[in-house]
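Study this:
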Amino acid sequence: MQSSFPGRAAILVIALILLVAPVAAAPSHAPAAFERGTITQRPYVVMIDNHPNAYPQTGLDKAAVVFEALAEMGITRFMAVYIPGVSPDVPSIGPVRSARLYFVRWAMGMNGLYIHAGGAPDALKRAREAQEIIDVDALARSGGAYFTRIRTRKAPHNLYTSMARLDQAAARFGNTGINNPELGFLIKADAPPEQRPAAQELGYYFIYRQDSVGWTYDPVSNVYLRLRRGKPAVDAATGEQLRASNVVVIEVQERPIPGDSKGRIQQDVVGSGPGVLFQDGIAREITWRKETEAAPLRFYFADGSEAAMNPGQVWIAAVPQLANLTVR
């Protein structure tokens, strides 16, 4: 019977591939893992602009988790999650933008300080009322002190905050210790180098094919490097290419809000749906589940076991349909 264990020749080939493969430069500060059982303070959950006038953004590279989903008119928005006392210091985060109800619901499952600048009426109402989060609105009198506008960009794409300012907001609004053992993801070890494939590429779009997102796998560092319209997506402060240890693409149904004058949409983020998890250079089908507004977002394999994440950033992209995803 033929053994599945690789022979010496195969191991030598893998080693040579890893030696000649391009090495992604190490980031200046790696993001912390959003690890279950280790989070004792409310995370900072920050809405980040992704309008073309907002690029490149600042601080996404140091977030423990990033959500990426449609806002309106085909433009997406980010929600970046930082862990106070654990995530590296972030001197600048932004541009900060407005809330949407589905992002509020994701934030509720993270028990966070929800950081935003105004928002859709239903989102503002839910953010104020939800007991699971603390609402910090830059456009409200109580929240404006923790943000600043820069002169090198035009409003509304010029509003920024920082970890230090959010620490101040937390002290004012009561970022008391939390005891939620369900908060965070399961964490596993990275696959050893000999088990990583030489390459993997994935791409997806939300509505318009020309506004595509890409990720290229680097087996040496075991991360995925982000592309924006085919070019490296970088952080404005460091100039380093964005990277994620885990990329999760999930299908989330979306629809226009009837009669909304600004063309806003709604997305069904409570419930379940299909998705694909990319880690260690491998794509695996998953099912996402969020049982209630307050419940955390979870990912499961076909056998019912919960997916564990590699240490480092988890990037979650919510696309209208998985048919918009390609893998090479």
About this structure: The chain has four helices and 20 strands. The longest helix spans residues 8-20.
